[in-house]
Amino acid sequence: MNHLEELGKAIRAYDTEGAGSSAQAAMEDGVDPLEGLDVVAGVMKEIGDGFESKELWLFDLIGAADAAKAALLVIEAKVLETGSQPDHLGTVVLGTVFGDMHNIGKTMVGALLTASGFRVVDLGTNVTSAEFIQAAKDNNADIVALSALLTTTAVAQAKVIETLEEEGMRDHVKVMVGGGAITAEFAEMIGADGYRATAFEAVGLASELVGE
Amino acid sequence: MAAEGIVRNLKPLEILTEEQVERIHRGALDVLEVTGVKVESEKARKIYEKGGCIVDHDDERVRFPPGLVEQSIRQCPTSFHMKALDRKNDLILGGTTTYFALFPGLRIADLDTWEVRQPTVQENHDANKIADGLENILASPSYTPYTDMVDVPPAMLLPVSTWSRLKYFSKISRVGTTMSSHIFEIQMAQALGVDIYGAMEAPPPLSWNEDATDCAIACAEAGFPVEPGTGGSMGATHPATLAGALVIGMAEVMSGVVLVQLVNPGNPVIVNCFPPPINMRSGHPAFGSISISLFQVAWNQIWRTRYGIPIMNGGSGPSSAKKIDFQVGYEKSVGAMLSAMSGANMINHCGGLMGELSYHPALSVLDNDAVGNIKRFLEGVKVNEDTLAIDLINDTGPIPGFFLNKQHTRDWWQQEQFTPLVSDQSTYPEWLEKGKKSSLDLARERADALLESWESKLSPGQEVEIDKILDDCRAWYKKKDLI
Ligand code: B12
User: Fold this and answer.
1) At what angle do helices A33-52 and A58-82 cross, to 10 degrees?
2) What dihedral angle (degrees, nearest 10) is formed by the CA atoms of B215, B221, B225, B229?
3) Mutual orientation of helices B361-379 and B121-132 as an angle, nearest 10°?
4) Among the three residues A47, A82, A117, which one is the final residue of a domain in this structure?
5) What is the domain range of residue A202?
6) What domains does chain B contain, in order, with CATH numbers?
7) Ligand 1 pocket, B203 CB below 6 A?
8) Which of A66, A153, B306, B311 has the fewest Cβ atoms surrounding its Cβ within 10 A?
9) Strand partners, B49
10) How far apart are the C-alpha atoms of A157 and A129, rounded to whole Å?
11) CB of A99 closer than 6 A to ligand 1?
12) A120 with A17, same domain?
C-alpha cells in the first residue's frame, strides 16, 4: 500500500495518528501535496455522504474529520512550502463567540465543512472578536463562521462584524452565523452575510458565500 | 414552617451494587487528582490554591487531593432550609423529601400550530402566576419559564427572568448567570428577604467558565445555597457509557462543591448532573431517553449512600416532544417517577417541552397532576390497625356487604386515594356532553382560572425595590456597552 492509500485508510478508520504519520511519510516521499489534499477531500466526501444518508453516525463524521485535520496540518505546511495552489473551496475560521461555551453544534459545522472540502480553522469556544480577526488575517480566511447558542452574547457577534469593518477586512471576508439562539432576522440585524439553521445547510451557505 | 413536599415512605430504588458505587466514586476522585479541572477564573483558581489544590495557572488547571474533596463534601449540610416569599412555600431540602420544580423552555409553544414563538414579558409573568398556584410545584430554575422574551435586550434576559419570577412566583427560585447577571439577581432576593440558590453550571468536560465560578462564589459569600451542576451530553461532552458519564459528572460536581466549601465552609449545596445522550444524527440532546433515568437513579444512589447531601435531578424533566402528546407524557413521567423513587430531593420537571426549547403553562398544569400521582405513590402503603381494617372486613362480610356506606371509607378516602385535577376521568356520556374535552383542554381551563385568581404576595415597597435593582442592572450593562 502506498502512503496515500494508507492515509485514506487511516481517515476511514478514524485513526488521527495514522493519518498524520502517513501524510508525513507521503510528503517525505515527495508526493505532490495537492494529490494529498485530493485524497483527504475524496475520503471526507465519502464520509460526509455516508453521514447524510444516515449510514454513518455523527461519531464517524467527527472521527474522520479529526483524522483529516491531522493529515491536513502536514500537507498544508508542504503546500505553503512549495507555493502550489490548493483547490479547496475556501478557508473558514470558525468558533463559538465570546461568553458562550456551547461546543457541540460548532464542532459539527466544522466537521461537515471539512468533509465538503473547506479548510477549517476551529478556534474553539468563548472566542473573542480579536481572536477571530487575528485568525482570519493569519489564515487569509474567506469566511468567518460564528456559532452562538446564547442570545445574551449576541453583541459579541455584532462586535466581530464591526471589528472586521474597522480593520477594512469586511469586503473580502464573509460572515456566516448560526447556532440555537440565532434567527435569520437576527443575522440580518447584525449585518451578517448569511444564516442557516443546521450544520448541513451551513455547508451550502459557505459554498454560496465563496461563490461556488 | 415549610411546604409539604413528597415524603418517600419506600425504600429508595437502587440499581448499583455497593462495589459499583465504590468504583465510580473512586474513579471520580482519581480523575480529579490526575487530570483535575480547567478553571477559567483566576480568582477561583486562587481560592482552590489557598485551599490546598495543586494549581497550574498557565494551563488554568486545578488538581485535587482526594482527602480535600471528601472533606469538603462532608462539610456540606445534609439538609437545609430555604425561605420563600410566601412562607408556606419554604423548603427543607434533604433527607427523604422530594420537591418538584419547573423546567425551562426557550420560547412559547403555540397550542394550535405547535410552532414556537418568542413570548412577551407579560406572558412570562402569566406563566409564573399560573405556576404559583400549582400545589405540587415548589421551585424554579433560572431562565424559567421562558428564556427568550420579546423586546428584552439580550443581556437583560436572565435578570428580567429572575425579576419576573421573584414578583409573580412566591416560591424558591434560582439565580442564573451570564455576564455577571447574578450580582443583581442576588440583590433582588436580598431586597425581598428570601433565599435564592445559585447556578454553578459547568461546560463539560471538566471545565468551569468564569460566570459559573463567579456566581458560586457570590452566592456562597451571601450564604445562599449553590447548585454545582453539569450538563454534559453522553457521547459528546461526556463518555458514551453510563459508568463513564457518572465518573466525569461526579468529578465535575465534586470540584464545584470544593470551591463552595472553600469560600464558605458549611455552605449549603445541592448536587446536580443531567447528561442526556446526544442524538447521533442531529447532535441535539436526546432528552427523554431512558438512559438519562439510569444515570439519574445511579447518581442519586451514589450521593445518597456516600454522602447524604441534597440531590437535584435536572435530566428527567425535559422531553424531545414538540407537542403536548403521548410522548411528552411518558418521557416526563417515567423519568420523574424514577428520579423521585431513587431519592432526588429536587426534580426540575414541570412545563418544559422540546428539550428546553419550549414551555407552556398548560403543560405545567398537566405535569403538576403527574407529580400528584408520583407523590401518592411515594407515600407508599400505610399499614396500621385502622388501615388493615380487619375488624371492618369481618363485620362487613361477603355480599351484600358493602364499603361505600362505611365511616372508614369516609375517613380514609382522601388520604389513601389520589384524585387528579385535570386528567380526564369523566364517564363517556359526561365527556360527550361537555364537549369531548381532552386533558389538555382541561389543563388550559385550569391555567386560565389560576391566572384569574392570582394575588401578589409582595408589598408595594418591595416591588419598587426590585424594579429599581433591575434598572440598576440595565444601567450597568449600558455602561459596559452590552445593551
Ligand atoms: C448542552 C447545553 C448546555 C451545556 C453546554 C455544553 C457544551 N460543552 O457544549 C451547558 C450545561 C454548559 C450549558 C450552559 C448554559 N446554557 Co445551555 N444549553 C444546552 C442545550 C441543552 C443544548 C445545546 C446543544 O448542544 N445543542 C445541539 C447542537 C447540535 O445544536 P446547535 O448548537 O444549535 O447547532 C446546530 C445548528 O444551530 C447549527 N449551527 C451551530 N453553529 C453554527 C454556526 C453556523 C455559522 C451555522 C451556519 C450553523 C450553526 O448546526 C448544528 C447542527 O445542525 C440548549 C437547549 C437545547 N435543547 O438546544 C441549552 C441552551 C442553549 N442554553 C441556554 C442557557 C441560558 C445556558 C446558560 C446561560 C445557563 C446558565 N448557567 O445560566 C449557560 C451558559 C454557559 C455559557 N457561558 O456558555 C439557553 C440559551 C438561551 C438563549 N437564547 O440565550 C438554551 C437554549 C436553553 C434554554 N432554556 O433556553 N448549556
Assistant:
1) 160
2) 30
3) 20
4) A82
5) 91-211
6) 6-15+73-379 (3.20.20.480), 385-416 (no CATH)
7) yes
8) B306
9) none
10) 8
11) yes
12) no
Query: A115 with A154, same domain?
Result: yes
Cα distance between residue A25 and residue A35, in whole Å = 14
pLDDT of chain B, 483 residues: tens digit per residue? 789 899 999 999 999 999 999 999 999 999 999 999 999 999 999 999 999 999 999 999 999 999 999 999 999 999 999 999 999 999 999 999 999 999 999 999 999 999 999 999 999 999 999 999 999 999 999 999 999 999 999 889 999 999 999 999 999 999 988 888 999 999 999 999 999 999 999 889 999 999 999 999 999 999 999 999 998 999 999 999 999 999 999 999 999 999 999 999 999 999 999 889 999 999 999 999 999 999 999 999 999 999 999 999 999 888 999 999 999 999 999 999 999 999 999 999 999 999 999 999 999 999 999 999 999 999 999 999 999 999 999 999 999 999 999 999 999 999 999 999 999 999 999 999 999 999 999 999 999 999 999 999 999 899 999 999 999 999 999 998 888
Q: Which of A109, A149, A161, A205 to mutate to test the pocket of ligand 1 (most atoms within 8 A of CB)?
A: A149
Examine the domain organization and report whether A58 and A113 are in the same domain. no
The H or E element containing residue B442 is helix B439-453
> Furthest-apart CA pair in chain B: how many Å?
84
When divided into structural domains, chain A yields a total of 2
| Structural element, H or E, at residue B241 | none
Instruction: From B131, B176, B132, select the one nearest B157 (Cα to Cα).
Output: B176
**B205 cis-preceded (ω within 30 degrees of 0):** yes
Residue B269 to residue B252: CA distance in whole angstroms: 14
Nearest CA in chain A to B237: A104
User: Are A97 and A67 in a shared domain?
Assistant: no
Domain end call among A45, A60, A82 = A82
Please check whether residues A117 and A47 belong to one and the same domain: no
Which of A103, A125, A152 lies nearest to residue B155, judging by beta carbons?
A: A152
Same domain, A75 and A118: no
Task: Looking at the structure, tell me whether residues A163 and A197 fall in a common domain.
Answer: yes
Residue nearest to atom 53 of ligand 1 (CA): A198
Q: Which three cell numbers stand for residue B373?
A: 400521582
Residue B116 bridge partners (DSSP)? B109
Show the cell assigned to A135: 485568525
Which CATH number does the domain housing residue A125 bear?
3.40.50.280
ipTM topping 0.85: yes
Whether residue B400 has a cis bond before it, omega within 30° of 0: yes
Question: A124 in ligand 1 pocket by Cβ < 6 Å?
Answer: no
**Eight-state DSSP code of residue B117:** E
The rounded distance, in Å, linking the Cα atoms of A102 and A122 is: 14
**Claim to verify: residue A66 and residue A155 sit in the same structural domain:** no
CB contact under 8 A, A101 and B207: yes
Interface test with A, best of B157, B200, B230 (most A CBs within 10 A): B157
User: Ligand 1 center to residue A149 CA distance, Å?
Assistant: 4
What CATH number should be reported for the domain holding residue A52? Answer: 1.10.1240.10
Q: Which of B217, B216, B195, B200 is nearest to B93 (CA)?
A: B195
> What is the C-alpha separation between B93 and B311, in angstroms, rounded?
9
B64 three-state secondary structure: coil
Among residues B175, B177, B266, B272, which one has the least CA distance to residue B227? B272
